[in-house]
Amino acid sequence: MAYSSQLGFQDAASPIMEELLHFHDHTLMVVFLISTLVLYIIMAMMLTKLTNTNSMDAQEVEMIWTILPAIIMIVIALPSLRILYLMDEVSDPHLTIKTMGHRWYWSYEFTDYHSLSFDSYMTQTQDLKPGQFRLLEVDNRMVIPMESPIRVLVSAEDVLHSWAIPSLGVKTDAVPGRLNQTTLIITRPGLYHGQCSEICGANHSFMPITIEATSLNAFENWSMSMLES
């Protein structure tokens, strides 16, 4: 969960988010090294006679500033392509959930459980219980089993939305008439909050997402209770 004055990302709760955090740290180190080198060259040019004719026309220098950026781009691109592949791959999911964006709430359909479906509206401030977060809590949470590959199909009924949960590394556009797909695996139990990340209208900031990760037995009990109600 995010906290006040937070500078970094939320703690990772899925393998994909862990990979994204590692890639962010990797890229940030590359940026730091480049910035340090450029600053050193600028200071050297200001304090010494570095800008002479021989150094400016040297073929070796031109080769270095052509080849070195290409190597840096490869070092950044290869891990990025690996993560993109991992994010797109869905192999034998244990559960498929269809998520629909509406103005302004989300609806969920568990297609593997006799078409279990429900709407998820934001909990009003006056109805919040102690410990719940304003603008992030919903009346019906999306409950899923942890440590299980989950496939989520995302679409919208009216306008563009975006289904995003930062701590899980998930952000998928909900486009009317189009079915997008994402996958997630939650590594530990808990509540994970997100919000619509596409400006979709007047109540854009009032359609949160709350996922509750539980054990398989607790998930089965929840699904049975939802079907009975």
TrEMBL record:
<keyword id="KW-0679">Respiratory chain</keyword>
<dbReference type="InterPro" id="IPR002429">
    <property type="entry name" value="CcO_II-like_C"/>
</dbReference>
<dbReference type="InterPro" id="IPR008972">
    <property type="entry name" value="Cupredoxin"/>
</dbReference>
<dbReference type="Pfam" id="PF02790">
    <property type="entry name" value="COX2_TM"/>
</dbReference>
<keyword id="KW-0812">Transmembrane</keyword>
<dbReference type="InterPro" id="IPR036257">
    <property type="entry name" value="Cyt_c_oxidase_su2_TM_sf"/>
</dbReference>
<keyword id="KW-0479">Metal-binding</keyword>
<keyword id="KW-0472">Membrane</keyword>
<dbReference type="InterPro" id="IPR001505">
    <property type="entry name" value="Copper_CuA"/>
</dbReference>
<dbReference type="GO" id="GO:0005743">
    <property type="term" value="C:mitochondrial inner membrane"/>
</dbReference>
<keyword id="KW-0460">Magnesium</keyword>
<dbReference type="GO" id="GO:0016491">
    <property type="term" value="F:oxidoreductase activity"/>
</dbReference>
<keyword id="KW-1133">Transmembrane helix</keyword>
<dbReference type="Pfam" id="PF00116">
    <property type="entry name" value="COX2"/>
</dbReference>
<comment type="function">
    <text>Component of the cytochrome c oxidase, the last enzyme in the mitochondrial electron transport chain which drives oxidative phosphorylation. The respiratory chain contains 3 multisubunit complexes succinate dehydrogenase (complex II, CII), ubiquinol-cytochrome c oxidoreductase (cytochrome b-c1 complex, complex III, CIII) and cytochrome c oxidase (complex IV, CIV), that cooperate to transfer electrons derived from NADH and succinate to molecular oxygen, creating an electrochemical gradient over the inner membrane that drives transmembrane transport and the ATP synthase.</text>
</comment>
<dbReference type="InterPro" id="IPR045187">
    <property type="entry name" value="CcO_II"/>
</dbReference>
<keyword id="KW-1278">Translocase</keyword>
<feature type="domain" description="Cytochrome oxidase subunit II copper A binding">
    <location>
        <begin position="92"/>
        <end position="225"/>
    </location>
</feature>
<keyword id="KW-0249">Electron transport</keyword>
<dbReference type="InterPro" id="IPR011759">
    <property type="entry name" value="Cyt_c_oxidase_su2_TM_dom"/>
</dbReference>
<keyword id="KW-0813">Transport</keyword>
<dbReference type="GO" id="GO:0042773">
    <property type="term" value="P:ATP synthesis coupled electron transport"/>
</dbReference>
<dbReference type="InterPro" id="IPR034210">
    <property type="entry name" value="CcO_II_C"/>
</dbReference>
<dbReference type="InterPro" id="IPR014222">
    <property type="entry name" value="Cyt_c_oxidase_su2"/>
</dbReference>
<keyword id="KW-0999">Mitochondrion inner membrane</keyword>
<keyword id="KW-0186">Copper</keyword>
<comment type="similarity">
    <text>Belongs to the cytochrome c oxidase subunit 2 family.</text>
</comment>
<dbReference type="GO" id="GO:0004129">
    <property type="term" value="F:cytochrome-c oxidase activity"/>
</dbReference>
<feature type="domain" description="Cytochrome oxidase subunit II transmembrane region profile">
    <location>
        <begin position="1"/>
        <end position="91"/>
    </location>
</feature>
<protein>
    <recommendedName>
        <fullName>Cytochrome c oxidase subunit 2</fullName>
    </recommendedName>
</protein>
<keyword id="KW-0496">Mitochondrion</keyword>
<dbReference type="GO" id="GO:0005507">
    <property type="term" value="F:copper ion binding"/>
</dbReference>
